[in-house]
């Protein structure tokens, strides 16, 4: 069973585009949520889950906060991304 991947983004963020492209290139389905599409309460809850991480993208695999594009790319290069997504 694959873990759901969620990517919080903004429209003009190149790192968001890079993260989405990496996931697409690996055939990993993900849910994209625009930071401007969530309420201030939802943003506050997200900040709690990410330990006040303030940049985008904010990437989750299941309930695990991965970080941003750099961290996602490191997981991919080490082979751990597939393990996390595919269990």
UniProtKB/TrEMBL annotation:
Q: Which domain of life is it from?
A: Bacteria
Q: Show where the GST N-terminal domain sits.
A: 3-87
- Keyword annotations of the record: Cytoplasm, Disulfide bond, Electron transport, Redox-active center, Transport
Example GO biological process:
cell redox homeostasis
Q: One Pfam family for this entry, by name?
A: Glutaredoxin
Q: Which CDD domains match?
A: GRX_GRXb_1_3_like (cd03418)
Output the InterPro entries linked to this UniProt entry: GLR_AS, Glutaredoxin, Glutaredoxin_subgr, Glutathione_S-Trfase_N, GRX_bact, Thioredoxin-like_sf
Q: List the GO molecular function terms.
A: glutathione disulfide oxidoreductase activity; protein-disulfide reductase activity
What the protein does comes down to: Has a glutathione-disulfide oxidoreductase activity in the presence of NADPH and glutathione reductase. Reduces low molecular weight disulfides and proteins.
Q: Which PANTHER family match?
A: GLUTAREDOXIN-2, MITOCHONDRIAL, PTHR46679
Q: Which family does it belong to?
A: Belongs to the glutaredoxin family.
Name this polypeptide is given = Glutaredoxin
């Amino acid at each position: 069973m694959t873990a759901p991947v969620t990517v919080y983004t903004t429209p003009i963020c190149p790192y968001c585009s890079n993260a989405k492209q990496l996931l697409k290139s690996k055939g990993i389905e993900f849910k994209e949520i625009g930071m401007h599409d969530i309420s201030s309460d939802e943003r506050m809850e997200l900040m709690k889950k990410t330990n006040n991480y303030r940049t985008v993208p904010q990437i989750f695999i299941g309930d695990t906060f991965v970080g941003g594009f750099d961290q996602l790319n490191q997981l991919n290069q080490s082979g751990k991304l597939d393990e996390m997504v595919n269990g």
